[in-house]
Every structure is written in C-alpha cells, then in structure tokens.
Amino acid sequence: MLKRNFKPLKMQFKHKNVFYIALDGVAAIAAFNIFQPFVQMFGKHLGASDFQIALINSLPALASIFVLIPGAYFIESARSKKSITIKLVFMTSLFYVLISLVPFIDSNVKSWIYVILIGLMSVPSSIFNTSWQSFFSDVFKGKVRNYAFAIRNKYATLIGLITTLLAGQILTNLPKTDTQRIYVYQAFSILAFLFLMMEIHFLSKIDSPPSKPDNAEKPTLPKWADIKSNKRFLIYTITSFIYYVSWQMGWPLFFFYQVDFLHANELWLAIINVAGAITSVLSFTMWNRIISKYGNSFVLIIAAAGIAINPILFVTAHSLITLTIINAFIGIFGAALTLTLFNNLLEVVPDKSKTMYIAYYNTLMGISGFASPIIGEWLYKITNIYFAMNFIGIFRFIGTYIFYLRYKREKISRDKK
C-alpha cells in the first residue's frame, strides 16, 4: 500500500525542468549559505576594519558595474546560454578555493586580499546572474515561470536555512580557538566550491532551447531611443533603483548592530538568518497565490513596505531573542520581495535583446549596490546607529510609495484599453 501511494520526489513536480531548476537552487543556496552569511565575520577574524566590512558589501557591486553590459553582449552572442551559465558557475567556484588560501598568507594585507577576492568573485557571479535570469526566462514561459521560480525559492530557502543553522552551530561550538575557527571557515569555502560543482551537474540536466547556428545574426546593443520608448522598462528601472538605494544602505548597518551592539556570534547570526528563512519558506506558496490573483506589481508594494519597517524595528531590539523574532516577521515580506522584483523585471523586458535589458537593469542596481552601503556606513559614523536606521526606514517607505505610483499608473493605463 505504501509502495503504491509513494511518489518519488521527481514525480512531485509538473515538469522535469522544474525539478532540476529546484535542485539548481538547492545547490546554489547551499554554497551561498555555508559561507556568505559569515563573510563579514570571516573578514573580522582576518583583521578587517569597519570600512573594509562596508567594502565587502560594496566592491562586488562595483565590479559588476563594469562587466554586466559587455557580459550580456557576450551571453547574447553565445550559441548556448546554458553552456555559458555553467561555465560562469565554474569560474565563480574557483574563487572559493582562492579564499580558502588567504589565511595562509603571513601578512598584514591579508584582510585586503580577502576583500579584493570577494569583489573580484562578483565578476563571474554577476554575469552569471544575468545569464541565469535570461536562461530561466527562455526555458520557462507564462504561468509556469511563476510556478517554477516559486518552487525553486521554496526548496532553496528550506535547504538554505538548514545549511546556515548547521554552519553557525559548527562555527560556534566546534572551534576552541580563533585559529581553529579560521580553519572551519576555510573548510566551508571548499564545501561551497563542491556545492557549486553539484549546481553545474543539475544545470546540465535542464532541457533548454536549441543552440544558435554558427551563422546566427549577432546581437545589437539597444539604442537609447529604444530604451526610452519602452516606458514600462524605464519606469520600473528608475523606481527599483530608488528602492534599492534605500534597501542596500542598511546592509552593513544590520551587521554592525548585531555584532557590535548586541554582541552576536556566528551561531546567533545563523539563528537570526534562519528565523527569517523559515517564515520565507512557509510564505512562498501564499505569496504565489496572491501574485496569481492580484499581480506582481501590487504584491511588490506590500513586500517593499514590509522590508521598509525592518530597520526601524531592528534598533528597538535590545536582545538577540527580540531581534530573531523581528527577523522572522520580516522574512515573510522578504519572500515576496524576492519573487516580485524578479517577476516584475521579466514582465517589462522585451523578448528582443532581453539579456541586454536585464544587464542594463542589473548594472544600475549594481551602482546602488556599490555606493549605498558606503553611504549607509558614512551616515552611521557621522550620526549614530539609531538615526541612520530610522532614516533608512523612512527612505524605504518613500521608495514603496514610488512603487505604488507606478502600480497606479499601470492600472490607469490598463483601464483605458
């Protein structure tokens, strides 16, 4: 009876590609979450200053600014987006190996080498993001696209929270000295490399559109006149940029508040992240239903408002337990923001030169990603953590209101038709 009713995991998905794109997400998030939640703390153990910690947030975005558009042209010129995407994963994975070697450098500059490697790693990884988004858009169409992305995020977030919690437990309880703790960070870097090797395997299993013939027409860069005439893309890009600035300004400040003010260690950082991840996992299905009923643009407003209140609530917490509860609440909106930012972008990019439009969008968000954390750290230094976080919260609400104006404009435009 049990055997007759049992369904293999693969059969629980509507399509083979959905199954493998979910496994792709699982492997990618395992690689990310075994290292990235602690990337700043690793820097601190290597002697990084507050400014270098801010650069860990900013340099990846700076690197992406210069490579996204030429990288997108390269992707569009390639015969197979799937092949390019796999190669970019492999290039990114090699940086984890290099990072694992940094502690062996017997020099005061090793913290700088670490920061620079984190920045350089974003060259292949940021091009990968554009390549993966374009590849995903080619493989999945219509409502299946929303379903596939929601399923991927659901399982990826579940595995991600388990990975983060285990990593935090190990970093806190296994090492007895700081030297031993650095050895664990090195081991995690190698594990991240191995998880990305698994991601390459899962990506290779996805059925994708046929490769372009050798004599295919070369892509052309969209002219400014073409972009300007695409009002939906232009307006969404501008509104997103404003919100991204307010969103990314707070990134280093959250870390400073957790570690410098509430004295969180690696385990507490993991617990706080996992609390948000659990509520994200539980809410993905709910948000997917709401998106299907009300649309991505409307849900984006709700998600943006939820994330806007985060820095304001954050600095009211005077214990790590309270902070964990706040992060669990915010995780509900984080799931919706992840879904709707991406889905909105795919709704406004044209099929022709799609990869180039995504690259233009990501480049502008990269400019924000470079400047905003540095501005946030500067604001914190000239005022205090409480003023800076409240200012960022108000700024995010302004960005949310601009998303509302965009939604209202699109609704009026649809009603006229």
TrEMBL record:
Sorted alphabetically, which InterPro entries does this protein's record hold? MFS (IPR011701), MFS_trans_sf (IPR036259), Sugar_transport-like (IPR052528)
What topology in the membrane does the UniProt record assign? Answer: Multi-pass membrane protein
Q: One GO term of the cellular component aspect?
A: plasma membrane
Q: Where does the protein end up? A: Cell membrane
Q: Name one GO molecular function term.
A: transmembrane transporter activity
Arranged from A to Z, the UniProt key words for this protein are: Membrane, Transmembrane, Transmembrane helix
Show the stretches that span the lipid bilayer. 20-39, 51-74, 86-105, 111-132, 153-171, 183-203, 233-255, 267-287, 294-314, 320-346, 358-379, 385-407
Q: Which SUPFAM superfamilies match?
A: MFS general substrate transporter
What is the protein's major site of localization?
A: membrane
Q: What is this protein called?
A: Major Facilitator Superfamily protein
